[in-house]
């Protein structure tokens, strides 16, 4: 059976958690492979229960699937334990969780540096969540990181922390005039986390290889999205990892030959949080309408999301980059009642038309969207479960997205609930 990758096709917040939850009962493993608690998934169960997940894979709400946090994730143990406890209090079985011993830890100095550097940048700030994700990945690349497996060896934990703080405390104190991090307090705090996390830490690569050998299905769940990818997104306004399909192999230890399906999720319009270029961004009443009706506020931060029309240039780029086999379009219902629903089909930059992503950051920043306007619809679509039950103009809108992206649209979300979908093509047999 296959390994399936689920990714975001825009700047995040597309509704990946809903799709993971939709597939959760039909897969054996759900694996989070990148990011940290700077991301979030909101899942609404059939009984109306709402869950905001940050580090835990969305498959946690499936009664059967094993849930795995892969080596590519950076883990704040305090946040993870709070999330575990919160789910357990609501009756969710968290004993199925396994965490890669090679996943890196977010430490107090990472959070401190993230916040102070972002403030120091002022108007040039990137728009991070201040949760230490970037500095943790920076230390990972610099080979100064501390991993979950280090929690199991107090001597190694102290030695690595002392080495890291030898530099970080100098920066915090002498450059930013902030209090230095105490080694003893930090070791004591993290060893308390170690006792609780010990049962969950495992060699997850072998676990997943064995599952695939047994013919079981592994769903690899990305956080953030394509346009926030460190290498392929709108750098430097990106996350610090690779949430694209290729990152799934690195962040979970899955061989690329095991992946047989890549599902990309996109809203029927576009949003992003934080700074950075956004060609179709709306600053008028339409933008406010999308934000209000779509409840566009961050799961993790509560920040207002920037809103804009659907960008087919971005979506097509994501489909080609990730090798997408199936598109899921969410929140089509938010567009109900709009007389016209424009789609960006290209960019104009310095008088020249671009149908693909421009090469340079400067060109993308100055891109003016070229729109194709489609007629809207007024009918309530939240009860639609088949394509024939959608209004004709809504069907035309989805068909045009499919044509522009060159990828089949398999599911259309018509509401926030797990069952509020139009199934055009089954994602699993």
TrEMBL record:
<dbReference type="GO" id="GO:0044208">
    <property type="term" value="P:'de novo' AMP biosynthetic process"/>
</dbReference>
<dbReference type="InterPro" id="IPR033128">
    <property type="entry name" value="Adenylosuccin_syn_Lys_AS"/>
</dbReference>
<feature type="binding site" description="in other chain">
    <location>
        <position position="303"/>
    </location>
    <ligand>
        <name>IMP</name>
    </ligand>
</feature>
<feature type="binding site">
    <location>
        <begin position="331"/>
        <end position="333"/>
    </location>
    <ligand>
        <name>GTP</name>
    </ligand>
</feature>
<comment type="pathway">
    <text>Purine metabolism; AMP biosynthesis via de novo pathway; AMP from IMP: step 1/2.</text>
</comment>
<feature type="binding site">
    <location>
        <begin position="299"/>
        <end position="305"/>
    </location>
    <ligand>
        <name>substrate</name>
    </ligand>
</feature>
<dbReference type="GO" id="GO:0005525">
    <property type="term" value="F:GTP binding"/>
</dbReference>
<dbReference type="GO" id="GO:0000287">
    <property type="term" value="F:magnesium ion binding"/>
</dbReference>
<feature type="binding site" description="in other chain">
    <location>
        <begin position="13"/>
        <end position="16"/>
    </location>
    <ligand>
        <name>IMP</name>
    </ligand>
</feature>
<feature type="binding site" description="in other chain">
    <location>
        <position position="239"/>
    </location>
    <ligand>
        <name>IMP</name>
    </ligand>
</feature>
<comment type="function">
    <text>Plays an important role in the de novo pathway of purine nucleotide biosynthesis. Catalyzes the first committed step in the biosynthesis of AMP from IMP.</text>
</comment>
<dbReference type="GO" id="GO:0004019">
    <property type="term" value="F:adenylosuccinate synthase activity"/>
</dbReference>
<keyword id="KW-0342">GTP-binding</keyword>
<dbReference type="InterPro" id="IPR042110">
    <property type="entry name" value="Adenylosuccinate_synth_dom2"/>
</dbReference>
<feature type="binding site">
    <location>
        <position position="305"/>
    </location>
    <ligand>
        <name>GTP</name>
    </ligand>
</feature>
<feature type="binding site" description="in other chain">
    <location>
        <begin position="38"/>
        <end position="41"/>
    </location>
    <ligand>
        <name>IMP</name>
    </ligand>
</feature>
<comment type="similarity">
    <text>Belongs to the adenylosuccinate synthetase family.</text>
</comment>
<keyword id="KW-0479">Metal-binding</keyword>
<feature type="binding site">
    <location>
        <position position="143"/>
    </location>
    <ligand>
        <name>IMP</name>
    </ligand>
</feature>
<comment type="subunit">
    <text>Homodimer.</text>
</comment>
<dbReference type="InterPro" id="IPR042109">
    <property type="entry name" value="Adenylosuccinate_synth_dom1"/>
</dbReference>
<keyword id="KW-0963">Cytoplasm</keyword>
<feature type="active site" description="Proton acceptor">
    <location>
        <position position="13"/>
    </location>
</feature>
<dbReference type="GO" id="GO:0046040">
    <property type="term" value="P:IMP metabolic process"/>
</dbReference>
<feature type="binding site" description="in other chain">
    <location>
        <position position="224"/>
    </location>
    <ligand>
        <name>IMP</name>
    </ligand>
</feature>
<keyword id="KW-0436">Ligase</keyword>
<dbReference type="InterPro" id="IPR042111">
    <property type="entry name" value="Adenylosuccinate_synth_dom3"/>
</dbReference>
<dbReference type="InterPro" id="IPR001114">
    <property type="entry name" value="Adenylosuccinate_synthetase"/>
</dbReference>
<protein>
    <recommendedName>
        <fullName>Adenylosuccinate synthetase</fullName>
        <ecNumber>6.3.4.4</ecNumber>
    </recommendedName>
</protein>
<feature type="active site" description="Proton donor">
    <location>
        <position position="41"/>
    </location>
</feature>
<dbReference type="InterPro" id="IPR018220">
    <property type="entry name" value="Adenylosuccin_syn_GTP-bd"/>
</dbReference>
<dbReference type="GO" id="GO:0005737">
    <property type="term" value="C:cytoplasm"/>
</dbReference>
<feature type="binding site">
    <location>
        <begin position="40"/>
        <end position="42"/>
    </location>
    <ligand>
        <name>GTP</name>
    </ligand>
</feature>
<keyword id="KW-0658">Purine biosynthesis</keyword>
<dbReference type="InterPro" id="IPR027417">
    <property type="entry name" value="P-loop_NTPase"/>
</dbReference>
<feature type="binding site">
    <location>
        <position position="13"/>
    </location>
    <ligand>
        <name>Mg(2+)</name>
    </ligand>
</feature>
<dbReference type="Pfam" id="PF00709">
    <property type="entry name" value="Adenylsucc_synt"/>
</dbReference>
<feature type="active site">
    <location>
        <position position="140"/>
    </location>
</feature>
<feature type="binding site">
    <location>
        <begin position="12"/>
        <end position="18"/>
    </location>
    <ligand>
        <name>GTP</name>
    </ligand>
</feature>
<keyword id="KW-0460">Magnesium</keyword>
<feature type="binding site">
    <location>
        <begin position="413"/>
        <end position="415"/>
    </location>
    <ligand>
        <name>GTP</name>
    </ligand>
</feature>
<feature type="binding site">
    <location>
        <position position="40"/>
    </location>
    <ligand>
        <name>Mg(2+)</name>
    </ligand>
</feature>
